[in-house]
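Task card 7
Instruction: Convert sequence to structure tokens.
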Amino acid sequence: FVYEIICVMANFFDFVGRVFISLVFLLSGYNKIFNYENTVTWMEGFGVPGFLLWPTIVLEILLPIFIGFRY
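Output:
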């Protein structure tokens, strides 16, 4: 009985961890969308071409969704 409770709690904490990690990347992707010009300027200040922002946004939105569904 105790082992079953431990397994359920482990699955719950695993789920909560996936949600929080996914939220970090989702919020970062949304921030890049809503502050597009500032983000391009910031990236180019570090020598990263601005055209790489769109692939970054796509990855930061899609990959957390896949993490949430355990792919």
